[in-house]
Design goal:
The protein contains 12 helices and 4 strands. Helix content is about 70%, strand content about 5%. The N and C termini lie far apart (about 65 Å). By secondary structure, it is mainly alpha-helical. Helix 5 packs parallel to helix 11.
Length: about 250
């Protein structure tokens, strides 16, 4: 097949084929002089790429699967990681950044900037990024902070700092999982399907536990710091109100 025929058979564009080749997802074509020819192995490879994209895998993960760098037991784990939000909350409506801007009531350019900086992280399904109602609720919470008088540049600076620190903690958590759960299971003599099942079960058990632990600890630390600040600068009425709120939220 010529590249145009491959694109037609695979139902993708020629540009996508070129992109897959650039990303080392497709093997090079055969050549007859200056003419490039593709075979059924290229068509099968594209079908596999599309299947993995539909399951939410990134191209970087797909490349490692296709290169044989990940064990068979890793594929269900990667699928669980890619689909963890859907697994926890059921099927969710996904929409683009334009609709997200409409629902929140902010300029799309602002959200585009937040996405570029990693301060808003979309879910990727079928190779396409999307947002959920949880993103709408989170951003509306940010809008309430602005309405309360917090300046936008300072909020962005705080968000960037939080993002950097959170990524560092998350990287440590993932490394712990890899070292003490994934690698020992991969090195065990269990059948591949049982390894895969145990990895997915461990991830789905530990993910909500870690999330709840981090959220609870941050809330307690925030209340503690606020209390300490008020004890140094606040008056009696502010201290009483803060104590009442802390008791209610405990």
């Amino acid at each position: 097949m010529r590249v145009e025929e491959l694109a037609l058979a695979a139902d993708i564009s020629v540009d996508t084929i070129r992109y897959y080749q650039k990303q080392r997802l497709l093997p090079p074509p055969g050549r007859d002089g200056r003419l490039a020819f593709y075979g059924d192995e290229h068509l099968d490879r594209i079908a596999r790429i599309k299947e993995l994209q539909r399951r939410g895998f990134t191209l970087a993960v797909i490349r490692r699967f296709l290169a044989g760098e990940l064990d068979p037991a890793d594929e269900p784990l990667a699928a669980a990681v890619a689909g963890t939000e859907a697994a926890e909350g059921g099927e969710e409506e996904l929409f683009g950044v334009e609709e997200l801007a409409d629902r929140v009531g902010v300029p799309q350019a602002m959200l585009d900037s937040l996405v570029r900086e990693g301060l808003i992280i979309p879910r990727t399904v079928g190779g396409e990024p999307g947002f959920t109602q949880a993103d709408v609720s989170t951003l509306k919470g940010g809008m309430r902070l602005l309405e309360a008088g917090l300046p936008l540049p300072e909020l962005f600076a705080l968000a960037r700092h939080h993002h950097a620190v959170t990524r560092e903690v998350a990287a440590e958590a993932v490394e712990l999982f890899d070292t003490w759960v994934r690698k020992p299971l991969r090195a065990s003599d269990l059948p591949e399907d049982e390894k895969a099942e145990r990895l997915v079960e461990a991830f789905r058990t530990l993910m909500p536990a870690v999330t709840a632990l981090v959220a609870h600890h941050f809330r307690r630390i925030l209340l503690q710091v606020a209390q300490e600040h008020l004890e140094s600068v606040g008056d009696r009425s502010e201290l009483d109100a803060a104590s009442a709120d802390e008791a209610w939220s405990a």
